[in-house]
């Protein structure tokens, strides 16, 4: 089986390197709008060869789309136009808009929408690592609209990536990711901006930055080119969560402002319930 | 040299276990208002024996205060009353209020105010780990008011803990920690509350929780008993930072709400500058 990785960055590169190490595929063909990325991906041994999108479609059995979600939205219809037997895997972080755009496409059945809940704050082919996906969740979205053989092909690859699986409907997926992924990024962006604002006047501040700070702010290193389209796609859900998040911060602010430390203690204690969810 | 650890939790226990492994002290005496904690600390071998605060003061050369900052504020004057030659180390996370409270104490010189910028979201003696402090920053505060020999004694221990050191004035310290530690906790608390609010109606949400979410929310597991007093002590600085943080979130909210993705992209890109600070 030949596979094409369209977008040889963190996700695409990690799919490639993991499948390569497992010898799960015969050939990995890389496609990227950046020549620099393609050269690096070849150098790092993530891909076996590079070519154009058109050529890659013709020569592959499975085509992974691991590019920003606006690029998926733009390219997906024409990719579905060109395929015959191939399977296309949309690995984007938002689903509703993308799946609506191809809902009536005659080749819709060849598309499997899957969102690997894995990543780091780094991007590009150098960020690719084996085992990025190990033990993480692959969320399949609206699989009832995928052909059975197309799904089975992708699921066999998911197994090679050693992932767990879940199934969701597109809208449900986008709401959930707004809560457990997208809002975390916004929080980190805002925290970084807050601290950077202060740093202008207080250079020494970062001598103190400990591991707590690092952990809450690390997502602020994430790529704007990748994330802006995600927020654009998932705008309505994210705005809803963001409003709730600001409300919670204002509750904390009010307790502190009014020196109501009993209320403050209760809020922290309530937030501790997150222990039920995180190991 | 005998040392007393007043408060055998995460920080006190980690000081104890590290010094014990290095054989840097002769005896470690534990004091805690919780008998359960004392028993666990003995069981875990963090301390050699347990006793009362009074007895511990009499039998120790160095007394570490690793209890919540409200308890430090309350106990410190009477501890300074009782000491003769001993050194007292205040390891609290806020400094201005505590140091003001003992500014004119005749034994002020025996006190060394030091804040180890290290910790985890866990608490209690079971949370104590060796190497918690390794490579982290020990911030000495207002050392010009400490006797030279008292400072040298503490600094030798800091070296055993393999920490780097910085020196700050009390107000500067409290402002800086509001930015790089306290606000991170508030962000995590609010994020946990946001998501828990949603979870009431959507149980499946956490199937999706990936490592990004975990990292931004993990501080929400922190102890309310330890943190409420810190926020009480550092209220004014934290309120200032919190206001700025909410403003930054509202800027992001506005860009998204107005579908101004150019502004949104710019905000993320600006937040990326945090890379300069975090490795």
From TrEMBL, chains A, B:
Annotated NCBIfam families: PRK08507.1
Keyword annotations of the record: Coiled coil, Oxidoreductase
Gene3D superfamilies: 6-phosphogluconate dehydrogenase C-terminal like domain, NAD(P)-binding Rossmann-like Domain
SUPFAM superfamilies referenced in this protein's UniProt entry, alphabetically: 6-phosphogluconate dehydrogenase C-terminal domain-like, NAD(P)-binding Rossmann-fold domains
Prephenate/arogenate dehydrogenase domain ranges (all copies): 1-279
Record-level Gene Ontology MF annotations: NAD+ binding; prephenate dehydrogenase (NAD+) activity; prephenate dehydrogenase (NADP+) activity
Pfam families: PDH_C, PDH_N
Organism of derivation: Parapedobacter indicus
Segments forming a coiled coil: 235-262
Gene Ontology biological process terms from the UniProt entry: tyrosine biosynthetic process
InterPro entries: 6-PGluconate_DH-like_C_sf, NAD(P)-bd_dom_sf, PDH_C, PDH_N, Preph/Arog_dehydrog, Prephen_DH
Record-given protein name: Prephenate dehydrogenase
